[in-house]
Amino acid sequence: MTDTTFKNANILIVDDTEANIDILAGLLEIQGYTNIKTTTDSRQVLSLFHSFKPDLILLDIMMPYFTGYEVMEQLKSVIPAETYLPVLVLTADITVEAKQTALSGGANDFLNKPFDLVEVGLRIQNLLFARYLFLQSQNQNQLLEEKVKERTLALELTNQELIVANEKSEASNRLKTSFMNNISHEVRTPLNGILGYGSLLAEPDLEPEDRLEYLSMMKVSSNRLMNTISDYMDISLIASGNMEVHNKSVNLTKILVELKNKFQPHCEAKKLSFNLEFPDNYQEIILNTDPSMLRKIISHLIDNAIKFTTQGSITISYTIKPESIELFVSDTGIGIEKEAEELIFKSFMQENSSNTRGYEGSGLGLSIISGFLMLMGGKIHFRSVKGEGSIFYISLPVEPGLYEELKTNKASFTKPETGKPVILIAEDEILNMLYMETILRTTASVIIKASNGFEAVEQCRNHPEISVVLMDLKMPGMNGFDATREIKSFRKDVLIIAVTAFAMNEDKKNALEAGCDEYLAKPASKSDIIGILKEYGFAG
């Protein structure tokens, strides 16, 4: 290492997780380091030490084959005692014992995961500087003293940068704490309901009415847990820039009626009237937009309205404007203070910090709505009076042909001449297979099963009477994407419905591009599956 900027230093990264290596290597490359070697196999460290001759080792602790402690012991046997080779330990083990063991075993510095990248960069600089000084001290003691002064001055000059970085780190830590507290509450609470009522259902001599009540409570808890997971996935995709919009023709009236029917029982349970009002110039509205995002946006608004309203009514309606359509959801709930108008669109917040987490829910609804609308080219605003209620407005741009009739051709799929369809279930998880087999028992004339993509393709070749395929996407051997492509190459008339735990927008896009005709994310209910079969004429 001869470059005084340390950018030509040989840096070896040892971590069994590729994602961690990518983060560290990316950081080093951004900072200008040019000689970086990585490995996920701790058995290769000694060989790399001899061939690569590292100036610094970034070392994980918990790894297969050899732990970080064992790797340091091996290095002791080949590194001369008078040689200084810095080792920076980066580990998820936050115990004092782990830190003490690492430092006593030969580590020069220690950081816990998840680590702050600014701090990692500074520690790497410091360790490389110490390495540089060691190498120089072997030749020129005077140079050592001069570089110490230079480095001290550099550290003083960057002190203000460290203060700013520390402030950002503290803000990030506060957000992480808020996120962890929120997710802990919103996952554990419904999970407790699922496990608790599930155990009660196993009680002997359970009265039928009690069994129905417990099943109802399990369903409520399950839906809440699924909504929470969906919210966290959505906000993560929005924040990372990985959420994509997939536009198609959407019947707005149908969506509004569908959501009214979905939320009507919730309003009735709170004795609220729930109104769906159409404008005076009402007609069937066909939008070119992302139907999944639109449903989630309106669902979040309705859910919030119900949550914060104890008496009165909820109303959904829309107005048609020259270049946009404006939907609104109004309520007679608690209302929002003027000072809270900006705050409520931040993650995990409910009006103000004193009321944060005052009501159940992820606290991400309005953040998700804002993110979706930004991607869709729409906007959101609201009017509210504390103690009287709120009206939230969302506007979406419209294109020529907005009012054209929605035409869907679903006649290209072969229907059974008489009776019920033959259905193939392609699923490698036995419990999911049994569940789908149970709910389709009265809908299908015959149910054929396949546990991987190869079997699904073979069954379709051997049974031309198959009309419908329920296709899992993640299966051993041949996955559902490849199986769908193969089946569609010789059976374009078979209806293939992806029923999968791959629940990201990109997964849906990939499934449809592979040839799936419809897409359902697990957990898929009986009404979801039967609803699609009815839509295509395969169920009464």
Q: Which fold name is given in CATH as the topology of the largest domain? A: Heat Shock Protein 90
The helix content, as a percent range, equals 40-55%
CATH superfamily of the largest domain: Histidine kinase-like ATPase, C-terminal domain
**CATH architecture type of the largest domain:** 2-Layer Sandwich
User: Helical region count?
Assistant: 16
Helix/strand/pairing class, anyone?
alpha/beta
Radius of gyration: 30 Å
Beta-strand portion reads 15-25%
Poorly predicted regions: 349-358, 400-409
Mean pLDDT metric: 83
Give the overall shape, derived from the CA principal axes: globular
Reconstruct the topology from this structure.
Blueprint: E1 10-14, H1 18-30, E2 35-39, H2 45-52, E3 56-59, H3 68-78, E4 87-91, H4 96-104, E5 109-112, H5 117-137, H6 141-157, H7 159-201, H8 208-240, E6 248-251, H9 252-269, E7 273-276, E8 286-289, H10 291-307, E9 313-320, E10 324-331, H11 365-376, E11 379-385, E12 389-397, E13 422-426, H12 430-439, E14 446-450, H13 453-462, E15 466-471, H14 480-490, E16 495-500, H15 505-514, E17 518-521, H16 526-535
Parallel strand pairs: 1-2, 1-3, 3-4, 4-5, 7-9, 13-14, 13-15, 15-16, 16-17
Antiparallel strand pairs: 6-8, 9-10, 10-12, 11-12
Helix pairs in contact: 5-6, 7-8, 8-11, 9-10, 10-11, 13-14
